[in-house]
Each structure stands twice: as structure tokens, then as C-alpha cells.
Specification:
48 residues; two-stranded antiparallel sheet; alpha+beta; 1 helix
Length: 48
């Protein structure tokens, strides 16, 4: 017997409520945003 999976997999990013673009919706999306931000801050601190 085949059972339909009703669990909808959410994308990592979804539309913003106001304005254009996308925003993170899951922890994976937030991770993809935070890692480069941390790298930029660390590089700026090292080079300063």
C-alpha cells in the first residue's frame, strides 16, 4: 500500500512579506546567511 506523504518540505528561503527578495525560513537558510557574515567580520577584524 502506498501512503501519500502530507509533510510539505519547506524551502530554505521564501518570499519576504514586505518588499522584494527572499528571507531564510529554516535553520539551514539562516546558517547559509550567518556563516559568510561571520567570515566577513573575522576577516575585517584580522585586517584592521
Amino acid at each position: 500500500m502506498i501512503v501519500a506523504n502530507d509533510d510539505k518540505k519547506r524551502g530554505w528561503f521564501g518570499p519576504k512579506r514586505i518588499g522584494y527578495g527572499v528571507r531564510p525560513q529554516t535553520w539551514q537558510g539562516w546558517l547559509l546567511v550567518l556563516i559568510p557574515a561571520v567570515i566577513v567580520v573575522l576577516v575585517a577584524a584580522i585586517l584592521h
